[in-house]
Amino acid sequence: MDPHQKALIAAAGRLGVSVRDLSEAWGEDLVAYEHSGRRELVYRGRGYASMSCIAERVCLNKAATVDLLAEMGIPTPKSRVFREPEAERQKLERFMKDGSLFVVKPLHGQDGVGVGMDLRSFDDVLAHWRLHRELDSRFLVEEQVPGEDLRIQAVGGRIAAACRREPASVVGDGNSTVLELAEARDRFVQGQNPKNRLELDEVSHELLREQELDLDAVPATGRKVRLKKIVNVGQGGHVIDVTDELHPLYREWVSLIARQVGIRIFSLDVISEDPGADPRRASRVLELNGKAQWLHHTFSEGRTHDIPALVLRDLLSLT
Predict the structure, then answer these.
(1) Is 42 helix (H, G, I), strand (E, B) or coil?
(2) How deeply is 191 buried, as exposed, middle or buried, from its count of CB atoms within 10 A (0-12, 13-18, 19+)?
(3) What is the C-alpha separation between 98 and 52, in angstroms, rounded?
(4) pLDDT string in tens for the chain (319-residue length)
(5) What's the number of CA atoms in the CB half-sphere (13 Å) around residue 304?
(6) Residue 164 burial (C-beta neighbours within 10 Å; 0-12, 13-18, 19+)
(7) Could you give the dihedral angle defined by the CA atoms of residues 33, 8, 275 and 158, in that order, rounded to the nearest 10 degrees?
(8) What is d(CA 209, CA 47) in angstroms, rounded to the nearest whole number?
(9) Is 200 left (phi over 0), alpha (psi -120 to 50) or beta?
(10) What are the φ and ψ backbone dihedral angles of 22, each rounded to 5 degrees?
(11) CA distances from 9 to 17, 45, 73, 178, 299 (A)
């Protein structure tokens, strides 16, 4: 059973909500939550009956999300969809002609799978696409915006929590090797969510070489060692709560998106120079996620949030 579903079941017990596990009968991770004659089905802890088919498709299609956000006046990175890069070489080269850094990702991708960063040229895009082409029939290339990763979680069409996310790293203690520090971090993130893992891959080894380190090196006390480029909590990333720092315009954006898309529980992935600054100049919205992982808000640094209780209260109209 998905950890999000387990968290919802635990919250149901606190709220006096009846729970009926339908997983065995349906052969799927499906649970019915009931209260005062109202019943809601939740699939894998993050699939809600209130989300329409159209809303789900918009959230899954990154290009559709960008178009919709642009119509609302919400800033996004410039981007372009492609299928076969070699056949579209001239168009892609024109798009990338200013020499900026770019990101490439599957159009319908999730959880950071198949995302390539720091790409400078058409040849970089082509090489990345060849490695990951089996993930999707279409890919998105977009400008790589400077700033930090900001995740905003909405429940009931309102902001419930926000956090700044950082790629996986460890901090030296003057005694432990990089491998020992990474193994300790892996155990820690699994304790927060059993599905999360910090696995050292080729990207990790490349980053270590850039930092003139290897797995047997002993970093000095306080030295931060980068282990991942992509921000992904499921791969050992760090979560720092910034809910109270958000600029008020984000609340207007979340309310507008909820009305326009017809969705109540979702997240926004944002790149921001400063969560408290006017996002029209300091931020770009990357994605809208209707089945976002929200468990990290329950163990974020600085402040935590009871998101499962908020979700059940919204689904069942609890006061």
Answers:
(1) strand
(2) exposed
(3) 39
(4) 999 999 999 999 999 999 999 999 999 999 999 999 999 999 999 999 888 888 888 888 888 898 999 999 999 999 999 999 999 999 999 999 877 899 999 988 776 788 888 899 999 999 999 999 999 999 999 999 989 999 999 999 999 999 999 999 999 999 999 999 999 999 998 888 888 899 999 999 999 999 999 999 999 999 999 999 888 888 889 999 999 999 999 999 999 999 999 999 999 999 999 999 999 999 999 999 999 889 999 999 999 999 999 999 999 999 7
(5) 9
(6) buried
(7) 10
(8) 41
(9) beta
(10) -100, 10
(11) 9, 9, 38, 38, 17
pLDDT of 91 reads 94
Sign of the alpha-carbon torsion through 274, 277, 283, 288? positive
Give the length of the chain: 319
Cα–Cα distance for residue pair 82/125, rounded to 1 Å: 11
What is the assigned CATH class of domain 78-144? alpha beta
Asked if 157 and 254 touch (Cβ cutoff 8 Å), the reply is yes
Only one residue has tokens 């640094």, namely 301
CA distances to 93, 154, 231, 239, 290 from 234, rounded to whole Å, are 33, 20, 9, 11, 17
| Sequence spans of domains, the chain | 3-49, 78-144, 171-231
CA distances (Å), origin 275, targets 74, 237, 245: 15, 19, 6
How far apart are the C-alpha atoms of 249 and 251, rounded to whole Å?
Answer: 5
The confidence score (pLDDT) of residue 60 equals 86
* Residues 153/165, Cβ–Cβ less than 8 Å: no
- Within 10 angstroms of residue 261's Cβ, the number of other Cβ atoms is 23
Strand 30-35 to strand 224-226: parallel, antiparallel, or no bridges (unpaired)?
unpaired
Both tokens assigned to 18: 């009846």
